[in-house]
Structures are given as structure tokens and as C-alpha cells.
Amino acid sequence: MTRDHYVFDHLALTGPVSEKRLEQALMDKLQATLTAFGHGLAFVGRQVRFTLGNGAESEELIVDLLLFHLTQLRYAVVELKVTPFQAGMVGQLGTYVAMVDDLVRDDTIHAPTIGILLVAGRSEQIVR
Which domain holds residue 94? Predict the structure, then answer.
């Protein structure tokens, strides 16, 4: 499932925007933001922290936004980037999706988790 772009004009952001400022604006306009993604999504959390491993080997990963689709019964991980698309972003998002699948999703009732990567721009050739 793909969508060419999302329009967040309702946030009224101007000038250079940091990821933190973008995230705060999205939270401030949560209902409008969820509607922009599509119908049936519910907010689960922001800056959702997961610790993988233990002791000195542990690593903390932070999901920007975690949503749940009510009719599809699946989690949606949203990764926010205020820079143009880079191939490594897909790997990061894939890691977060796998992590939510492993640690949160109940595979007896939930469909596999999906990832949504929001970037500032893209090169068609690189994205393909």
C-alpha cells in the first residue's frame, strides 16, 4: 500500500522544521493528523521506547509514532524525517516494524505491522 505524499498544511509550519517541532505539531493536531493518514487509525504512543538485549549489550530504540488500524487490526510505525529520502531510512523503519511485530503484536489476532516513512523529499530513482 503506497501513497505519493501526505499534505500536512493543517500544521501551519513555516521555515526550517526540526523533527521534534514536526512531531509536536502533529500531536497538537492529532485528530486532523490521523485523518490525513486515513480512516480507522488510533493513536498508541509517541516516542515509544524499546530496549533490546540486556546489560552492556542493550540498545534503546525509539519509534516516533505508533498507531493502530482498527479495522485491519494492525500496528503502524511512523518514522519522521525532515530530510530527503536516503536508502538507510528503509532499514531503520524495517527494524522498527520487526521490533513491534516481535514485542507488541499478538500474531494470533493482529495482521503484520506496517511502516510509514515520512520524508521531506525524494529522488524517484533512489526510492525505486
Answer: 9-127
